[in-house]
Specification:
Rossmann fold; alpha/beta; 5 helices; 6-stranded mixed β-sheet
Length: about 210
């Protein structure tokens, strides 16, 4: 049987880490995001991580809010990537405020089109990584999935990896050594599915709008 899946070695990924902690503070969201990147590299996908809170991203719903807004540079990296990963902690059962700000900025893509009427994000794959010490990983991924789909991204099967500790306890994902086997296996599945889907969509783009 011939495997006609397109090669993934020309694909790029970008992780937007939505921790509330500025560098160089340690962050479980950052750690899980980097592990997703490592898993993607196993499929020939290169990539980078941007910790959003390290940059002066303005609130708003346009592609450029002016006055030193860092979003236009981050947006260029988003548009240059084939795979976007949103890595966020859970706070009060919700995606972080930084994550919600990122989704608000991506809202501008609804009005950005290519020459054939497709959103500029059309054909790009998106996935989610979630960490927290309370319940809510499914709720958080559902919120982020919907927003990313609305602005043109395609979500692969098993497009989320997460770790959630016992509620109201102090253990954090970055405190776990070794990493839980189930989270590692889920990260590997996410990476494989995301790379596979991104390669397919790059080889066979969606039809004109």
């Amino acid at each position: 049987m011939v495997d006609d899946t397109p090669p993934t070695d020309s694909l790029r990924a970008l992780v937007l880490c939505c921790t509330l902690r500025q560098s160089p503070s340690e962050s479980s969201s950052d750690l899980l995001g980097r592990r997703v990147l490592e898993a993607l590299r196993g499929h020939g996908v290169d990539g980078d991580l941007v910790r959003v809170v390290d940059h002066p991203v303005a609130f708003g719903v346009s592609t450029d809010e002016g006055d030193g807004d860092a979003w236009p540079d981050i947006r260029r990296q988003v548009l240059a990537a084939d795979i976007l990963v949103i890595a966020t902690p859970i706070w009060m059962g919700q995606p972080s405020s930084v994550c919600k700000m990122v989704l608000e900025r991506l809202d501008a893509e609804l009005s950005e089109e290519d020459d054939e009427g497709r959103m500029l994000t059309s054909g790009k794959v998106a996935a989610v990584a979630v960490v927290g010490n309370e319940d809510g990983a499914h709720h958080v991924s559902a919120e982020v999935y919907q927003a990313l789909s609305d602005v043109g991204f395609t979500i692969p099967a098993n497009g989320v990896t997460y770790w959630v500790g016992e509620a109201m306890q102090s253990t954090d994902y970055q405190d776990l050594d070794p990493e839980p086997e189930k989270t590692a296996a889920t990260t590997a599945t996410l990476a494989g599915n995301a790379a596979h889907l991104a390669a397919l969509l790059k080889a066979a783009p969606y039809p004109p709008a």
